[in-house]
Design a protein that fits this description.
It is a single chain. Helix content is 31%, strand content 9%. The chain is an alpha/beta fold. It has 3 domains: 4-66, no CATH class; 79-230, no CATH class; 234-393, 3-Layer(aba) Sandwich (Rossmann fold), CATH 3.40.50.2000. The longest helix is centred in the C-terminal third of the chain and has 14 residues, at 376-389. Bound molecules: 2-acetamido-2-deoxy-beta-D-glucopyranose (3 copies). The site of one 2-acetamido-2-deoxy-beta-D-glucopyranose (NAG) has 4 residues, from helix 10. Residues 77-363 form the Exostosin GT47 domain. Belongs to the glycosyltransferase 47 family. GO terms for molecular function: glycosyltransferase activity. Its main location: Golgi.
């Protein structure tokens, strides 16, 4: 499907158009023609006229230039970040209807990635202040945190998003294709009730690749969206001896495996709790108080987590769980018990080297027997491999040699398209982009009509 493209590019242009015969012929032999393009004696009428710069599709030898695996050889991105003062409603998505919810209170915990990604992109060298030159547009929102703190209800979230989008002509221009949103919880983009109407072409960053238990459709699309790591507590991700807890030697670990978390009435989790009661010396699954006054402190929690060779990560309300990421920092081997899970940076990380995925339908003594059969040397090796890649799960700047942000930037770069258009975008012979009323793009007035 890649090959016909140069022919399409060549057959347009200001020179007299190619005849239909030329075009059909061109398509039929597209794949072959591509290789012999330079030696073929094509009719002069098909030669691209140079009055607008020719697209940089070919290298000196006439070979089609296609970015290396779609990523390019170096990061080179221009991201525009919308400012809350520029768009009416954006501040409500960031700080609630009364503006009372602070970014500091939203940066902590499981969903802090929505704040961290925003703050890191603001500081990024890939940020641009010019919309005209942007490859991508970042729409900040801390809506998961805002909703949890009563700052907006579901109806308000939906209405506010629609209001915000209608003030973005560039969103309309591309149909949202170059606009980036972060949805950091299991609900994914479902937090915005009408996401499917408005955001189903946009790039969504989310740790959740699966529907939640309460929805029958997934808001994650494996082709356009990007799975990001969960936000592991900063105290755990600090390396070089300063982290809250240090891993303990394998031989000193008390348990074969553990599952630390609430059962939440989920089948797999209940089975683990039961299994732990049957095999208390192998599997630790205590009743942990993760909320309320007797809440387990984070150091205590990490101290538990590091005391097993394997950390079990069953699905909860949705398929991703923070436990999976935490395992790499206390250095236990994560065992995924969540069949639908989607993991971040799958193009660079081979998860078979650093984790185990076991069918959630086979939670029982067989799982423990299997884990017990794995020699310590193999466990050591998996942990050592995990140590190498875990920097990709840390929300640090893209100026670090390795961080979640570097990974996200590469994945974003892969999504950059040369051209964007929506069903309500049209273009003319001279490069003018117009709407259905033939109004030129720079004259589009907000609110712009949305689907
Ligand atoms: C979301 O808001 C838009 C605009 O106000 C409205 O048309 C739409 O019906 C709302 N969606 C839901 C699910 O309420
Ligand atoms: C995206 O939204 C449009 C408009 O509502 C709809 O027609 C289309 O089917 C949706 N596509 C997907 C993949 O959900
Ligand atoms: C392109 O052509 C249209 C229609 O002739 C015209 O209205 C528009 O001003 C032109 N745009 C430019 C950039 O010349």
């Amino acid at each position: 499907m890649v090959m016909p493209m140069p022919m399409v590019m060549q057959s347009r242009g200001r020179a007299p158009p190619c005849t239909r015969t030329h075009q059909i012929g061109a398509l039929a032999i597209a794949a072959v023609v591509f290789i012999f393009a330079r030696s073929l004696d094509r009719p002069a009428t098909c030669v691209y006229s140079p009055s607008r710069p020719a697209p940089a599709l070919f290298d000196h030898a006439g070979t089609l230039r296609w970015p290396e695996r779609g990523y390019g050889s170096a990061l080179s991105l221009k991201i525009y970040v919308y400012d809350e003062h520029e768009i009416d409603g954006l501040s409500a998505l960031l700080r609630g209807r009364d503006g009372r919810i602070s970014a500091e209170s939203c940066i902590k915990g499981q969903w802090g990635s929505q704040v961290k990604i925003h703050q890191l992109i603001l500081k990024s060298k890939f940020r641009t202040l010019k919309k005209e030159e942007a490859d991508l547009f970042f729409v900040p929102s801390y809506v998961k945190c805002v909703r949890m703190n009563g700052g907006l209800n579901d109806k308000e979230i939906n209405q506010t998003y629609v209001k915000v989008l209608s003030q973005m002509p560039y969103f309309r221009l591309s149909g949202g294709r170059d606009h980036v949103f972060v949805f950091p919880s299991g609900a994914g983009a479902h937090l915005f009730r009408s996401w499917a109407t408005f955001l189903n072409r946009s790039i969504i960053l989310t740790p959740e690749g699966d529907r939640t238990d309460k929805r029958d459709t997934s808001a994650f699309n494996t082709w356009k969206d990007i799975i990001v790591p969960g936000n592991v507590d900063d105290g755990m991700t600090t390396f070089y001896g300063s982290s809250v807890v240090q891993p303990i030697p394998l031989s000193k670990r008390k348990y074969l495996a553990n599952f630390l978390g609430r059962a939440q009435g989920k089948v797999g989790r209940l089975q683990l709790v039961e299994l732990a009661q049957q095999y208390p010396n192998k599997l630790e699954s205590p009743e942990l108080k993760l909320t309320g006054p007797d809440k387990l402190g984070r150091t205590e929690y990490f101290n538990h987590l590091r005391n097993a060779k394997f950390c079990l990560a069953p699905r909860g309300e949705s398929s991703w769980t923070l436990r999976f990421y935490e395992a790499f920092f206390v250095e236990c081997v994560p065992v995924i018990l969540s069949d639908q899970v989607e993991l971040p940076f799958q193009n660079v990380i081979d998860y078979t080297q650093i984790s185990i995925k076991w069918p959630s339908t086979r939670i029982g003594p067989q799982l423990l027997d299997y884990l017990q059969s794995i020699p310590d040397e193999v466990i050591h090796e998996m942990i050592a491999h995990g140590r190498l890649v875990r920097c990709l799960f840390v929300y640090a700047s893209e100026t670090e040699p390795c961080s979640a942000m570097v990974g996200i930037m590469w994945e974003l770069q892969r999504k950059v398209r040369r051209f964007h258009q929506s069903a309500e975008t049209f273009w003319l012979h001279n490069g003018s982009i117009v709407n259905r009323d033939l109004v030129e793009f720079h004259d589009w007035r907000t609110p712009v009509p949305l689907p």
